[in-house]
Amino acid sequence: MKLRFLGTGWSHGVPALGCDCPVCRGRQPKNMRTRSSVSLWDDQVSVVVDVGPDFRMQALAAALKRIDAVFITHQHADHVMGLDDVRRFSWMQGEALPIWSEASVLDRLAELYPYVTQKRKPGTAVPLLKFCDWQHAVPLGSMTFRSFPVPHGNIPCVGMRIDTLQGSIGYVPDCSGLPEQALSVLEGVDVMILNALRIEPHPSHLSLMQSLEWLEEVGAPQSYLTHMGCPIDYHVHNDSLPAGVEMAWDGLEIEV
Where are the domains of the chain? Predict the structure, then answer.
């Protein structure tokens, strides 16, 4: 199993519009962050988690040729407003693309994208999508995707654990903490990926220090920070992180 960080930024992206902070002004490559998303693949299938408004450019940068499923962690715009762009993949593949998420999130997606269909119709240019209620573990290729609820403001949100015979990844791009159920599901993961929005505390996201505390609790041998805002500077903060923890950056690929 391989994973690519398609995007590692908060909802504003980095650089943020109208921001004159050193991170936004500096335009250093590892600080240039599109909205958070990852792709995972093995020798059988290719999967994407979250499709924000930058998804088209992310897919081009990653040279994605196929997507067999999309998983959505929650309904915020920076995680779903690129869903229309998956139509290229469903057209090329000739079948409806499964979109896995919690039932209320799927209802919201149906409101945002009322024109999707499961069969291609002549003269139309719409995504072929199949909304799938993610209640149980989903096996795809050599990977199995399991969700668990996490707190994130007043909307439903999930993190996930992805397992293969070779290893496991925990991925939680948005949350304000990891409840006992989440910690139980994440027990023993080889790689943990967790949000670190900014330096100061935030009511619905983890700060950098809070994220590090939760990563220590999970105890994965290797961990990565994602969903980071412009106050966080890769070239300032990455070297000060504990052993086994790194800041992810757009385009970083890892293997499990």
Answer: 2-14+26-250
